[in-house]
Amino acid sequence: MSAKFPTVFIGHGSPMQAIEPSRYTAAWEQLGRTLPRPRAIVAVSAHWYTEGTKVTAQAHPKTIHDFYGFPPPLYAIRYDAAGSPALATQVATLLRPTRAHLDLEWGLDHGTWSVLKYMYPAADIPVIQLSIDGTLSARAHYQLGGQLSALRDEGVLVLGSGNVVHNLRALRPDSDAAPYTWAQSFNQQVKTAVLNGDHELIIDYSNMGEAARQSVPTPEHYLPLMYVLGLKQPDEPVSIIVDGIDLGSIGMLTVQVGTAI
User: Fold this and answer.
1) CB 178: neighbour CB atoms within 10 A?
2) pLDDT at 2
């Protein structure tokens, strides 16, 4: 390939997006039609937050319903994509000297399948997940993302799934709830920095003040963005696929790095 395969960060939002289509899920569907068909997918989901780095290595990963108190139809969803033990081994090799444990217990959590069910509803593309090591800094995750660059030369989609703004304690339950001012402010700062290529500001997000503190009370939903930005090449285009604040305090920003090839 003369150009690298695109890489994408998706703001996945509430699990209810999986059964309640919205303008966000419509954008994910369109993205699946617009992107070249990947050979495989490496998903970095906010919902696999671990001590140490792990990568799923099963041939047939299970669908994980990692949430509680939601309607029964949500628990009935299965995303039966194949795994790829060979790709898992390749990812572990690329991440050295960081040791990535080949995991046979996890599967595909809702940070992955709630998005992929719209992008690739046939579930006919192999998918593995890479965990987020909670002991590492944002900069370390950014650097790990960069180490996966070779995958983009092989038709592999690296997909980060989280939310730039993610404060569950501040949720407003109405679907049309107005966003908090701090959520809008931080989301806009990050979006502007993404478009301007100011990765240092995004990595050191705590320097953005009180809006950052309220928008990122815990880092797991923010960190998948580090992997996608770490993969960006100089002069590579960046596109905003969809944006918005859901339920007052959940950022739905979706970013594509690279163009269709």
Assistant:
1) 11
2) 56
Mean pLDDT per 10-residue section of the chain, whose length is 261 residues:
86 96 97 97 98 98 94 96 98 98 98 98 98 98 98 98 97 88 98 97 95 98 98 95 97 94 64
From start to end of the chain, where are the E strands?
7-11, 40-50, 53-56, 100-103, 127-133, 156-162, 238-242, 245-246, 250-251, 254-257
Domain ranges of the chain: 7-257
- pLDDT at res. 111: 97
- In order of 172, 177, 206, 215, the CA distances from 180 in angstroms are 9, 9, 18, 10
Q: Which fold has domain 7-257?
A: Protocatechuate 4,5-dioxygenase; Chain B (3.40.830)
Compute CA distances 232 → 14, 27, 79, 201, whole Å. Answer: 27, 22, 29, 15
The DSSP call for residue 67 is -
Gyration radius (Cα) of the chain, Å: 17
Name beta bridge partners: 8.
Answer: 159, 256
Q: What is the pLDDT at residue 196?
A: 96
Asked if residues 67 and 153 have their Cβ atoms less than 8 Å apart, the reply is: no
Strands 254-257 and 7-11: antiparallel
pTM of the model: 0.96
Containing 194, the helix (H) or strand (E) segment is: helix 181-196
Of 221, 213, 223, the residue nearest 252 (C-alpha) = 221
